[in-house]
Specification:
heterodimer; A: 252 residues; alpha/beta; Rossmann fold; B: 354 residues; seven-stranded mixed beta sheet; five-stranded mixed beta sheet; 12 helices; 42% helix; globular
Chain lengths: 252, 354
Protein backbone atom coordinates (compact mmCIF):
# COMPACT_ATOMS: atom_id res chain seq x y z
CA UNK A 1 0.00 0.00 0.00
CA UNK A 2 1.23 3.45 -0.89
CA UNK A 3 2.00 5.91 1.85
CA UNK A 4 0.40 9.37 1.65
CA UNK A 5 3.27 11.83 1.57
CA UNK A 6 1.38 15.07 1.13
CA UNK A 7 -2.27 15.97 1.67
CA UNK A 8 -4.55 18.87 2.38
CA UNK A 9 -4.70 19.84 6.06
CA UNK A 10 -7.97 18.77 7.72
CA UNK A 11 -8.59 22.38 8.75
CA UNK A 12 -8.75 23.51 5.10
CA UNK A 13 -11.78 23.12 2.85
CA UNK A 14 -11.10 21.07 -0.30
CA UNK A 15 -11.57 24.01 -2.68
CA UNK A 16 -9.30 26.04 -4.96
CA UNK A 17 -8.57 29.61 -3.81
CA UNK A 18 -9.52 32.80 -5.65
CA UNK A 19 -6.02 34.26 -5.34
CA UNK A 20 -4.00 35.39 -8.36
CA UNK A 21 -1.16 33.19 -9.68
CA UNK A 22 1.97 33.77 -7.62
CA UNK A 23 0.14 35.34 -4.66
CA UNK A 24 1.52 34.57 -1.20
CA UNK A 25 -1.84 34.25 0.58
CA UNK A 26 -2.36 30.63 -0.53
CA UNK A 27 0.99 29.63 0.97
CA UNK A 28 0.29 31.42 4.24
CA UNK A 29 -3.22 29.89 4.44
CA UNK A 30 -1.65 26.46 3.98
CA UNK A 31 0.92 27.11 6.74
CA UNK A 32 -1.91 28.20 9.01
CA UNK A 33 -3.87 25.04 8.20
CA UNK A 34 -0.86 22.84 8.88
CA UNK A 35 -0.12 24.53 12.22
CA UNK A 36 -3.76 24.21 13.35
CA UNK A 37 -3.70 20.51 12.41
CA UNK A 38 -0.36 19.83 14.07
CA UNK A 39 -1.52 21.31 17.37
CA UNK A 40 -4.87 19.51 16.98
CA UNK A 41 -6.75 22.67 17.91
CA UNK A 42 -9.20 23.11 14.99
CA UNK A 43 -12.24 22.79 17.28
CA UNK A 44 -10.87 25.48 19.58
CA UNK A 45 -9.70 27.93 16.94
CA UNK A 46 -11.52 31.14 16.06
CA UNK A 47 -10.30 33.30 13.19
CA UNK A 48 -10.98 36.93 12.36
CA UNK A 49 -10.89 37.72 8.65
CA UNK A 50 -9.87 41.18 7.46
CA UNK A 51 -11.05 43.43 4.65
CA UNK A 52 -8.89 42.96 1.58
CA UNK A 53 -8.04 40.05 -0.71
CA UNK A 54 -8.02 37.64 2.21
CA UNK A 55 -11.49 38.53 3.49
CA UNK A 56 -12.51 35.22 1.94
CA UNK A 57 -10.06 33.25 4.10
CA UNK A 58 -13.17 31.78 5.74
CA UNK A 59 -13.88 29.99 2.46
CA UNK A 60 -10.60 28.09 2.92
CA UNK A 61 -10.02 27.59 6.65
CA UNK A 62 -12.58 25.35 8.33
CA UNK A 63 -13.00 26.88 11.79
CA UNK A 64 -15.35 29.32 13.51
CA UNK A 65 -14.80 32.79 12.08
CA UNK A 66 -15.72 36.43 12.19
CA UNK A 67 -15.48 38.84 9.29
CA UNK A 68 -14.15 42.18 10.55
CA UNK A 69 -14.38 45.70 9.23
CA UNK A 70 -11.17 47.13 7.80
CA UNK A 71 -8.54 47.27 10.56
CA UNK A 72 -10.79 46.19 13.41
CA UNK A 73 -9.86 42.52 13.66
CA UNK A 74 -7.74 42.83 16.85
CA UNK A 75 -10.67 44.52 18.65
CA UNK A 76 -13.03 41.71 17.62
CA UNK A 77 -10.42 39.15 18.68
CA UNK A 78 -10.17 40.95 22.04
CA UNK A 79 -13.93 40.75 22.59
CA UNK A 80 -14.00 37.05 21.69
CA UNK A 81 -10.95 36.10 23.75
CA UNK A 82 -12.22 37.96 26.83
CA UNK A 83 -15.45 35.94 26.67
CA UNK A 84 -13.72 32.61 25.92
CA UNK A 85 -10.13 32.67 27.23
CA UNK A 86 -9.88 28.96 26.39
CA UNK A 87 -10.29 29.49 22.64
CA UNK A 88 -7.31 30.01 20.32
CA UNK A 89 -7.98 33.26 18.49
CA UNK A 90 -6.10 34.57 15.48
CA UNK A 91 -6.51 37.55 13.17
CA UNK A 92 -5.32 37.53 9.55
CA UNK A 93 -4.66 41.02 8.25
CA UNK A 94 -3.05 42.75 5.31
CA UNK A 95 -0.89 45.86 5.38
CA UNK A 96 -3.60 48.40 4.54
CA UNK A 97 -5.79 46.77 7.16
CA UNK A 98 -3.26 46.45 9.98
CA UNK A 99 -0.68 49.14 9.30
CA UNK A 100 -2.99 51.94 8.16
CA UNK A 101 -6.67 51.96 9.09
CA UNK A 102 -6.16 49.52 11.97
CA UNK A 103 -2.90 50.80 13.46
CA UNK A 104 -4.54 51.78 16.73
CA UNK A 105 -6.29 48.43 17.15
CA UNK A 106 -3.17 46.30 16.70
CA UNK A 107 -0.94 48.52 18.87
CA UNK A 108 -3.40 48.49 21.74
CA UNK A 109 -4.17 44.78 21.48
CA UNK A 110 -0.41 44.24 21.70
CA UNK A 111 0.13 46.64 24.58
CA UNK A 112 -2.74 45.10 26.54
CA UNK A 113 -1.02 41.78 26.01
CA UNK A 114 -4.15 40.17 24.55
CA UNK A 115 -3.45 36.46 24.31
CA UNK A 116 -4.09 36.29 20.55
CA UNK A 117 -2.02 35.60 17.44
CA UNK A 118 -1.87 38.07 14.54
CA UNK A 119 -0.88 36.98 11.03
CA UNK A 120 0.18 40.17 9.30
CA UNK A 121 0.62 39.85 5.53
CA UNK A 122 2.80 42.63 4.12
CA UNK A 123 2.86 42.83 0.32
CA UNK A 124 3.57 46.55 0.13
CA UNK A 125 0.34 47.35 -1.70
CA UNK A 126 -3.46 47.46 -1.38
CA UNK A 127 -4.25 44.33 -3.38
CA UNK A 128 -8.02 44.00 -3.49
CA UNK A 129 -8.79 47.62 -4.32
CA UNK A 130 -6.41 47.54 -7.27
CA UNK A 131 -2.82 48.20 -6.22
CA UNK A 132 -2.90 51.52 -4.37
CA UNK A 133 -0.09 52.73 -2.12
CA UNK A 134 0.09 50.99 1.27
CA UNK A 135 1.74 52.17 4.50
CA UNK A 136 4.42 49.56 3.69
CA UNK A 137 4.97 50.61 0.06
CA UNK A 138 8.71 51.01 -0.47
CA UNK A 139 10.42 54.25 -1.41
CA UNK A 140 10.42 54.66 -5.17
CA UNK A 141 7.70 52.00 -5.59
CA UNK A 142 5.07 52.94 -8.14
CA UNK A 143 1.45 52.17 -7.32
CA UNK A 144 -1.87 53.42 -8.71
CA UNK A 145 -1.89 56.22 -6.11
CA UNK A 146 1.87 56.89 -6.09
CA UNK A 147 2.33 56.92 -9.88
CA UNK A 148 5.60 58.87 -9.65
CA UNK A 149 7.04 56.42 -7.15
CA UNK A 150 6.82 56.83 -3.39
CA UNK A 151 8.88 59.89 -2.41
CA UNK A 152 9.46 60.74 1.27
CA UNK A 153 8.58 64.40 0.77
CA UNK A 154 5.28 63.57 -0.88
CA UNK A 155 4.15 60.21 0.55
CA UNK A 156 6.35 59.77 3.62
CA UNK A 157 8.17 56.60 4.62
CA UNK A 158 7.05 52.98 4.88
CA UNK A 159 6.30 51.62 8.37
CA UNK A 160 8.20 48.71 9.93
CA UNK A 161 5.41 47.20 12.01
CA UNK A 162 7.34 44.31 13.58
CA UNK A 163 10.12 46.55 14.88
CA UNK A 164 7.60 49.09 16.15
CA UNK A 165 5.46 46.56 18.03
CA UNK A 166 8.57 44.90 19.48
CA UNK A 167 9.13 48.06 21.55
CA UNK A 168 5.92 47.39 23.52
CA UNK A 169 6.15 45.80 26.98
CA UNK A 170 2.82 44.07 26.40
CA UNK A 171 3.87 42.19 23.26
CA UNK A 172 5.30 38.72 23.85
CA UNK A 173 6.44 37.42 20.49
CA UNK A 174 7.07 39.48 17.33
CA UNK A 175 8.74 38.10 14.21
CA UNK A 176 9.05 38.74 10.48
CA UNK A 177 9.28 35.96 7.91
CA UNK A 178 8.87 35.63 4.17
CA UNK A 179 7.22 33.18 1.75
CA UNK A 180 9.18 33.94 -1.43
CA UNK A 181 11.21 30.70 -1.54
CA UNK A 182 10.82 27.10 -0.27
CA UNK A 183 13.48 27.75 2.33
CA UNK A 184 11.74 30.88 3.54
CA UNK A 185 8.40 29.05 3.69
CA UNK A 186 9.85 26.31 5.90
CA UNK A 187 11.30 28.93 8.27
CA UNK A 188 7.99 30.84 8.22
CA UNK A 189 6.10 27.76 9.37
CA UNK A 190 8.41 27.26 12.34
CA UNK A 191 7.85 30.85 13.40
CA UNK A 192 4.07 30.65 12.96
CA UNK A 193 4.01 27.50 15.05
CA UNK A 194 5.99 29.30 17.74
CA UNK A 195 3.47 32.17 17.71
CA UNK A 196 0.55 29.78 18.27
CA UNK A 197 2.49 27.94 20.94
CA UNK A 198 2.91 31.24 22.79
CA UNK A 199 -0.86 31.68 22.78
CA UNK A 200 -1.61 28.07 23.69
CA UNK A 201 0.71 28.44 26.69
CA UNK A 202 -1.09 31.66 27.70
CA UNK A 203 2.01 33.81 27.31
CA UNK A 204 0.33 36.72 25.53
CA UNK A 205 0.33 38.66 22.29
CA UNK A 206 2.11 37.17 19.28
CA UNK A 207 2.44 38.59 15.77
CA UNK A 208 4.08 37.17 12.67
CA UNK A 209 4.66 39.55 9.77
CA UNK A 210 4.83 37.71 6.43
CA UNK A 211 6.53 39.41 3.49
CA UNK A 212 4.36 38.21 0.65
CA UNK A 213 4.38 38.59 -3.10
CA UNK A 214 1.63 40.36 -5.06
CA UNK A 215 2.52 39.99 -8.76
CA UNK A 216 -0.76 41.54 -9.90
CA UNK A 217 -0.45 44.58 -7.64
CA UNK A 218 3.18 45.03 -8.53
CA UNK A 219 2.66 44.45 -12.28
CA UNK A 220 5.31 41.74 -12.55
CA UNK A 221 5.41 37.99 -13.19
CA UNK A 222 5.25 35.55 -10.23
CA UNK A 223 8.94 34.73 -10.66
CA UNK A 224 9.93 38.39 -10.78
CA UNK A 225 7.78 38.97 -7.70
CA UNK A 226 9.76 36.45 -5.61
CA UNK A 227 12.96 38.19 -6.74
CA UNK A 228 11.50 41.56 -5.77
CA UNK A 229 10.81 40.28 -2.24
CA UNK A 230 14.40 39.07 -1.98
CA UNK A 231 16.05 42.13 -3.50
CA UNK A 232 13.81 45.02 -2.47
CA UNK A 233 11.61 44.08 0.46
CA UNK A 234 13.97 42.09 2.70
CA UNK A 235 16.69 44.81 2.73
CA UNK A 236 14.09 47.27 4.10
CA UNK A 237 12.07 44.73 6.13
CA UNK A 238 14.73 42.41 7.59
CA UNK A 239 13.62 38.93 8.63
CA UNK A 240 13.97 37.75 12.20
CA UNK A 241 12.48 37.54 15.66
CA UNK A 242 12.25 41.00 17.19
CA UNK A 243 10.77 40.04 20.50
CA UNK A 244 10.82 36.66 22.24
CA UNK A 245 9.74 35.75 25.75
CA UNK A 246 12.46 35.55 28.36
CA UNK A 247 13.85 32.01 28.72
CA UNK A 248 12.59 31.08 25.26
CA UNK A 249 14.97 29.95 22.56
CA UNK A 250 15.03 31.66 19.19
CA UNK A 251 13.39 29.58 16.49
CA UNK A 252 16.37 29.42 14.17
CA UNK B 1 -39.70 43.27 47.15
CA UNK B 2 -36.28 44.81 47.01
CA UNK B 3 -35.29 48.04 48.70
CA UNK B 4 -35.07 51.30 46.86
CA UNK B 5 -31.65 52.84 46.38
CA UNK B 6 -30.78 56.44 45.56
CA UNK B 7 -28.56 56.32 42.52
CA UNK B 8 -27.53 58.40 39.49
CA UNK B 9 -28.86 57.43 36.08
CA UNK B 10 -25.40 56.51 34.83
CA UNK B 11 -24.72 54.18 37.76
CA UNK B 12 -28.22 52.74 37.45
CA UNK B 13 -27.46 51.91 33.81
CA UNK B 14 -24.39 49.97 34.93
CA UNK B 15 -26.12 48.12 37.75
CA UNK B 16 -29.17 47.29 35.62
CA UNK B 17 -26.87 45.74 33.03
CA UNK B 18 -25.30 43.52 35.68
CA UNK B 19 -28.72 42.53 37.02
CA UNK B 20 -29.69 41.63 33.45
CA UNK B 21 -26.81 39.19 33.23
CA UNK B 22 -24.37 41.37 31.29
CA UNK B 23 -20.78 40.52 32.23
CA UNK B 24 -18.86 42.38 29.53
CA UNK B 25 -18.38 46.09 28.99
CA UNK B 26 -16.15 47.81 26.46
CA UNK B 27 -16.07 51.60 26.32
CA UNK B 28 -14.18 54.83 26.11
CA UNK B 29 -14.42 57.89 28.38
CA UNK B 30 -16.67 60.75 27.29
CA UNK B 31 -18.80 63.22 29.24
CA UNK B 32 -21.60 63.05 30.40
CA UNK B 33 -21.67 59.22 30.57
CA UNK B 34 -18.39 58.65 32.44
CA UNK B 35 -20.04 57.20 35.53
CA UNK B 36 -21.22 54.21 33.48
CA UNK B 37 -17.71 52.85 32.72
CA UNK B 38 -16.39 54.00 36.09
CA UNK B 39 -19.13 52.10 37.90
CA UNK B 40 -18.68 48.98 35.80
CA UNK B 41 -14.87 49.02 36.10
CA UNK B 42 -15.19 48.22 39.81
CA UNK B 43 -18.49 46.35 39.72
CA UNK B 44 -17.83 43.86 36.91
CA UNK B 45 -14.77 42.21 38.51
CA UNK B 46 -16.90 41.62 41.63
CA UNK B 47 -19.30 39.43 39.64
CA UNK B 48 -16.70 37.62 37.53
CA UNK B 49 -17.17 39.95 34.59
CA UNK B 50 -14.77 41.81 32.37
CA UNK B 51 -14.28 45.53 31.84
CA UNK B 52 -11.98 46.83 29.12
CA UNK B 53 -11.28 50.50 28.50
CA UNK B 54 -10.73 50.49 24.76
CA UNK B 55 -8.28 52.67 22.84
CA UNK B 56 -11.13 54.31 20.94
CA UNK B 57 -14.90 54.32 20.53
CA UNK B 58 -14.34 52.37 17.32
CA UNK B 59 -12.31 49.65 19.01
CA UNK B 60 -14.89 49.52 21.82
CA UNK B 61 -17.78 48.78 19.47
CA UNK B 62 -15.76 46.04 17.73
CA UNK B 63 -14.90 44.48 21.08
CA UNK B 64 -18.68 44.45 21.56
CA UNK B 65 -18.94 42.77 18.13
CA UNK B 66 -16.43 40.12 19.25
CA UNK B 67 -18.06 39.48 22.62
CA UNK B 68 -21.62 39.47 21.23
CA UNK B 69 -20.50 37.12 18.46
CA UNK B 70 -19.01 34.85 21.12
CA UNK B 71 -22.48 34.59 22.68
CA UNK B 72 -22.14 36.96 25.66
CA UNK B 73 -24.49 39.66 26.90
CA UNK B 74 -22.46 42.80 26.30
CA UNK B 75 -22.80 46.55 26.80
CA UNK B 76 -21.13 49.72 25.62
CA UNK B 77 -22.05 53.28 26.45
CA UNK B 78 -21.04 56.67 25.16
CA UNK B 79 -22.26 60.18 24.49
CA UNK B 80 -23.13 61.75 21.16
CA UNK B 81 -19.71 62.34 19.47
CA UNK B 82 -18.61 58.92 20.69
CA UNK B 83 -21.77 57.30 19.34
CA UNK B 84 -21.02 58.88 15.96
CA UNK B 85 -17.63 57.16 16.00
CA UNK B 86 -19.29 53.85 16.79
CA UNK B 87 -21.67 54.00 13.84
CA UNK B 88 -19.46 51.93 11.54
CA UNK B 89 -19.40 49.08 14.04
CA UNK B 90 -23.11 49.36 14.81
CA UNK B 91 -23.86 48.89 11.12
CA UNK B 92 -21.66 45.76 11.05
CA UNK B 93 -23.30 44.44 14.23
CA UNK B 94 -26.79 44.97 12.82
CA UNK B 95 -25.74 43.35 9.55
CA UNK B 96 -24.25 40.30 11.29
CA UNK B 97 -27.37 40.16 13.53
CA UNK B 98 -25.57 40.26 16.86
CA UNK B 99 -27.42 41.12 20.07
CA UNK B 100 -25.91 43.89 22.21
CA UNK B 101 -26.94 47.00 24.11
CA UNK B 102 -25.63 50.48 23.36
CA UNK B 103 -26.36 53.44 25.62
CA UNK B 104 -26.25 57.01 24.33
CA UNK B 105 -26.28 59.60 27.12
CA UNK B 106 -26.97 62.39 24.65
CA UNK B 107 -25.21 65.74 24.74
CA UNK B 108 -25.53 68.73 22.46
CA UNK B 109 -23.97 68.79 18.99
CA UNK B 110 -23.14 69.07 16.20
CA UNK B 111 -19.39 68.48 16.24
CA UNK B 112 -17.83 68.58 19.65
CA UNK B 113 -20.88 70.63 20.66
CA UNK B 114 -21.14 70.79 24.42
CA UNK B 115 -21.49 68.48 27.40
CA UNK B 116 -25.00 69.45 28.45
CA UNK B 117 -28.15 67.42 27.71
CA UNK B 118 -29.74 67.22 24.30
CA UNK B 119 -32.03 65.05 22.19
CA UNK B 120 -30.42 65.83 18.88
CA UNK B 121 -29.34 62.25 18.11
CA UNK B 122 -32.92 61.11 17.53
CA UNK B 123 -32.47 60.74 13.77
CA UNK B 124 -29.22 58.86 14.27
CA UNK B 125 -30.80 56.43 16.74
CA UNK B 126 -34.07 55.82 14.92
CA UNK B 127 -33.24 56.03 11.22
CA UNK B 128 -30.18 53.81 11.09
CA UNK B 129 -27.20 55.94 11.99
CA UNK B 130 -24.49 54.19 10.02
CA UNK B 131 -24.41 53.06 6.40
CA UNK B 132 -26.89 50.63 4.92
CA UNK B 133 -30.53 49.78 5.45
CA UNK B 134 -30.88 48.81 9.10
CA UNK B 135 -32.53 49.79 12.37
CA UNK B 136 -31.85 49.54 16.06
CA UNK B 137 -34.54 49.04 18.63
CA UNK B 138 -34.45 52.42 20.38
CA UNK B 139 -35.73 52.85 23.95
CA UNK B 140 -36.14 56.30 25.50
CA UNK B 141 -36.50 56.36 29.31
CA UNK B 142 -37.74 59.44 31.16
CA UNK B 143 -37.02 58.46 34.78
CA UNK B 144 -34.17 56.58 36.44
CA UNK B 145 -36.56 53.77 37.38
CA UNK B 146 -37.62 53.48 33.76
CA UNK B 147 -33.96 53.55 32.72
CA UNK B 148 -33.32 50.54 34.94
CA UNK B 149 -36.36 48.66 33.65
CA UNK B 150 -35.64 49.45 30.01
CA UNK B 151 -31.96 48.52 30.38
CA UNK B 152 -33.01 45.05 31.52
CA UNK B 153 -35.60 44.80 28.75
CA UNK B 154 -32.96 45.93 26.28
CA UNK B 155 -30.85 42.81 26.79
CA UNK B 156 -33.91 40.59 26.41
CA UNK B 157 -35.03 42.38 23.26
CA UNK B 158 -31.52 42.19 21.80
CA UNK B 159 -31.47 38.42 22.32
CA UNK B 160 -35.04 37.99 21.10
CA UNK B 161 -34.40 39.76 17.79
CA UNK B 162 -30.63 39.19 17.42
CA UNK B 163 -30.38 42.93 16.98
CA UNK B 164 -28.54 45.80 18.66
CA UNK B 165 -30.71 47.85 21.03
CA UNK B 166 -29.95 51.47 21.84
CA UNK B 167 -31.04 53.11 25.07
CA UNK B 168 -31.46 56.77 24.26
CA UNK B 169 -30.89 58.73 27.45
CA UNK B 170 -29.60 62.28 27.85
CA UNK B 171 -27.31 64.17 30.18
CA UNK B 172 -30.18 64.88 32.62
CA UNK B 173 -31.15 61.22 32.91
CA UNK B 174 -27.51 60.19 33.20
CA UNK B 175 -26.52 62.59 35.94
CA UNK B 176 -29.52 63.10 38.18
CA UNK B 177 -30.35 60.87 41.15
CA UNK B 178 -33.64 59.17 41.91
CA UNK B 179 -34.67 56.29 44.16
CA UNK B 180 -34.94 53.10 42.14
CA UNK B 181 -35.77 49.48 42.64
CA UNK B 182 -33.96 46.68 40.81
CA UNK B 183 -36.90 44.38 40.35
CA UNK B 184 -36.69 40.62 40.27
CA UNK B 185 -37.50 39.56 36.74
CA UNK B 186 -39.22 36.43 35.49
CA UNK B 187 -36.65 34.20 33.82
CA UNK B 188 -37.38 34.09 30.12
CA UNK B 189 -36.25 31.45 27.71
CA UNK B 190 -34.49 32.73 24.62
CA UNK B 191 -33.55 30.84 21.50
CA UNK B 192 -30.14 29.14 21.94
CA UNK B 193 -27.21 31.10 20.51
CA UNK B 194 -26.26 28.25 18.21
CA UNK B 195 -24.89 30.79 15.72
CA UNK B 196 -22.19 32.01 18.13
CA UNK B 197 -18.47 31.65 17.56
CA UNK B 198 -17.34 29.25 20.28
CA UNK B 199 -15.11 26.76 18.47
CA UNK B 200 -16.46 24.31 15.88
CA UNK B 201 -16.67 21.26 18.13
CA UNK B 202 -19.08 18.53 17.00
CA UNK B 203 -20.87 20.90 14.64
CA UNK B 204 -20.24 22.65 11.32
CA UNK B 205 -18.30 25.86 11.84
CA UNK B 206 -20.09 29.16 12.47
CA UNK B 207 -19.33 32.28 10.46
CA UNK B 208 -20.39 35.81 11.39
CA UNK B 209 -20.23 38.08 8.38
CA UNK B 210 -21.89 40.84 6.40
CA UNK B 211 -20.23 40.53 2.97
CA UNK B 212 -22.50 39.29 0.18
CA UNK B 213 -20.87 39.89 -3.19
CA UNK B 214 -23.85 38.40 -5.03
CA UNK B 215 -26.49 41.17 -5.19
CA UNK B 216 -29.37 38.69 -5.14
CA UNK B 217 -28.07 37.22 -1.89
CA UNK B 218 -27.47 40.66 -0.39
CA UNK B 219 -30.99 41.68 -1.32
CA UNK B 220 -32.30 38.55 0.40
CA UNK B 221 -30.25 39.43 3.48
CA UNK B 222 -31.64 42.98 3.51
CA UNK B 223 -35.20 41.65 3.16
CA UNK B 224 -34.62 39.27 6.04
CA UNK B 225 -33.46 42.15 8.24
CA UNK B 226 -36.41 44.25 7.09
CA UNK B 227 -38.83 41.50 8.08
CA UNK B 228 -37.36 41.62 11.56
CA UNK B 229 -37.94 45.39 11.79
CA UNK B 230 -41.57 44.86 10.74
CA UNK B 231 -41.90 42.25 13.50
CA UNK B 232 -40.54 44.76 16.01
CA UNK B 233 -43.03 47.36 14.78
CA UNK B 234 -45.84 44.83 15.29
CA UNK B 235 -44.78 43.60 18.74
CA UNK B 236 -42.61 46.08 20.55
CA UNK B 237 -44.16 49.55 20.34
CA UNK B 238 -44.38 51.13 23.78
CA UNK B 239 -46.03 54.44 24.49
CA UNK B 240 -47.50 56.20 27.50
CA UNK B 241 -50.59 58.37 27.22
CA UNK B 242 -51.11 60.88 30.01
CA UNK B 243 -54.46 62.66 30.56
CA UNK B 244 -55.37 62.24 26.89
CA UNK B 245 -59.00 61.18 27.49
CA UNK B 246 -60.50 64.66 27.85
CA UNK B 247 -57.61 66.61 26.29
CA UNK B 248 -58.11 69.37 23.73
CA UNK B 249 -54.41 69.77 23.04
CA UNK B 250 -51.71 67.09 23.11
CA UNK B 251 -48.04 67.45 23.90
CA UNK B 252 -45.72 64.89 22.32
CA UNK B 253 -42.43 64.49 24.14
CA UNK B 254 -40.01 61.78 25.25
CA UNK B 255 -37.26 61.38 27.82
CA UNK B 256 -36.37 64.37 29.97
CA UNK B 257 -38.68 66.71 28.06
CA UNK B 258 -41.65 64.47 28.89
CA UNK B 259 -40.97 65.02 32.62
CA UNK B 260 -41.00 68.77 32.17
CA UNK B 261 -44.13 68.57 30.00
CA UNK B 262 -45.91 66.68 32.79
CA UNK B 263 -45.40 69.68 35.11
CA UNK B 264 -46.52 72.06 32.37
CA UNK B 265 -49.70 70.01 31.88
CA UNK B 266 -50.51 70.22 35.60
CA UNK B 267 -50.12 74.01 35.51
CA UNK B 268 -52.23 74.31 32.35
CA UNK B 269 -54.98 72.13 33.78
CA UNK B 270 -55.15 74.36 36.86
CA UNK B 271 -55.75 77.20 34.41
CA UNK B 272 -58.58 75.19 32.89
CA UNK B 273 -56.75 74.20 29.71
CA UNK B 274 -57.15 70.50 29.05
CA UNK B 275 -53.79 69.25 27.87
CA UNK B 276 -52.59 65.67 27.66
CA UNK B 277 -49.41 63.95 26.55
CA UNK B 278 -48.32 61.14 24.30
CA UNK B 279 -44.89 59.91 25.37
CA UNK B 280 -43.12 57.45 23.06
CA UNK B 281 -41.09 54.96 25.12
CA UNK B 282 -39.86 53.17 22.02
CA UNK B 283 -38.77 55.70 19.41
CA UNK B 284 -38.02 52.85 17.03
CA UNK B 285 -40.48 51.29 16.50
CA UNK B 286 -42.44 54.56 16.75
CA UNK B 287 -46.04 54.65 18.04
CA UNK B 288 -47.53 55.95 14.76
CA UNK B 289 -50.89 54.33 15.55
CA UNK B 290 -51.28 56.24 18.80
CA UNK B 291 -50.73 59.51 16.99
CA UNK B 292 -53.11 58.47 14.22
CA UNK B 293 -55.81 57.80 16.83
CA UNK B 294 -55.18 60.94 18.85
CA UNK B 295 -55.25 63.11 15.72
CA UNK B 296 -58.89 62.10 15.24
CA UNK B 297 -59.72 63.58 18.64
CA UNK B 298 -57.68 66.80 18.87
CA UNK B 299 -56.89 69.61 16.46
CA UNK B 300 -53.49 70.56 17.85
CA UNK B 301 -50.40 68.64 18.85
CA UNK B 302 -47.30 70.37 20.23
CA UNK B 303 -44.07 68.45 19.87
CA UNK B 304 -41.39 69.53 22.37
CA UNK B 305 -37.82 68.36 21.99
CA UNK B 306 -34.27 69.27 22.91
CA UNK B 307 -33.53 69.50 19.19
CA UNK B 308 -34.67 71.72 16.35
CA UNK B 309 -37.24 69.18 15.24
CA UNK B 310 -36.45 65.51 14.79
CA UNK B 311 -39.18 63.41 16.44
CA UNK B 312 -41.68 65.93 15.05
CA UNK B 313 -41.18 64.29 11.63
CA UNK B 314 -42.39 60.94 12.97
CA UNK B 315 -45.31 62.62 14.73
CA UNK B 316 -46.31 64.20 11.40
CA UNK B 317 -46.14 60.78 9.72
CA UNK B 318 -48.49 59.40 12.36
CA UNK B 319 -50.86 62.38 12.28
CA UNK B 320 -50.84 62.44 8.49
CA UNK B 321 -52.41 65.88 8.17
CA UNK B 322 -55.41 65.14 10.42
CA UNK B 323 -54.31 67.71 13.05
CA UNK B 324 -52.01 70.72 13.28
CA UNK B 325 -48.54 69.75 14.44
CA UNK B 326 -46.63 72.52 16.22
CA UNK B 327 -43.07 72.43 17.38
CA UNK B 328 -41.04 73.91 20.21
CA UNK B 329 -37.40 73.05 20.77
CA UNK B 330 -34.35 74.21 22.73
CA UNK B 331 -30.84 73.19 21.72
CA UNK B 332 -27.19 73.55 22.57
CA UNK B 333 -27.66 72.07 26.04
CA UNK B 334 -30.54 74.42 26.90
CA UNK B 335 -33.42 72.55 28.52
CA UNK B 336 -36.96 73.84 27.94
CA UNK B 337 -38.69 74.97 31.14
CA UNK B 338 -42.30 74.17 32.01
CA UNK B 339 -43.05 77.92 31.76
CA UNK B 340 -41.90 77.94 28.17
CA UNK B 341 -44.07 74.92 27.37
CA UNK B 342 -47.06 76.56 29.11
CA UNK B 343 -46.51 79.68 27.01
CA UNK B 344 -46.35 77.65 23.78
CA UNK B 345 -49.64 75.91 24.57
CA UNK B 346 -51.31 79.22 25.43
CA UNK B 347 -50.03 80.65 22.16
CA UNK B 348 -51.55 77.75 20.19
CA UNK B 349 -54.81 78.19 22.07
CA UNK B 350 -54.96 81.95 21.37
CA UNK B 351 -54.26 81.44 17.68
CA UNK B 352 -57.12 78.93 17.48
CA UNK B 353 -59.59 81.30 19.19
CA UNK B 354 -58.79 84.40 17.13
Amino acid sequence: MMKIAFERPRSMFPVPTHYCPGCGHGIIHRLLGEVIDEFGIREKVVGVAPVGCSVLIYNYIDCDMYEAAHGRAPAIATGCKRVHPDLIVFTYQGDGDLASIGTAEVIHAATRGENITVLFVNNAVYGMTGGQMAPTTLLGQKTTTSPYGRAPKREGYPIRIAEMLATLEGATYIARVSVHSPRAVIAAKRVLKKAFEIQINGLGFSLVEFLSQCPTGWGVSPTEATKWVEEKMIPFFPLGEFKVPKNEKLVK
Amino acid sequence: MDEKVLITGNEAIGEAAIQAGCRFFFGYPITPQNKVPEYLSYRLPQVGGCFVQAESEIAAIYMVFGAAGAGARVLTSSSSPGISLKQEGISYIAAAELPCVIVNVMRAGPGLGGILPSQSDYFQATKGGGHGDYHLLALAPSTIQETVDLMMDAFDLADKYRNPVIVLADGCIGQMMEPVEFKERPSEVFPPKDWAVTGAKNRPRNLLKSLYLDPEKLEQHNLKLHKKYLEMAKNEVRVETYLTEDADIIIAAYGTVARISRTAIKILRKKGIKVGMVRPITVFPFPYETFAEISEKVDNILVVEMSLGQMVEDVKLGVCGRANVHFYGRVGGMVPTYDEIVREIEKIRRSQVS
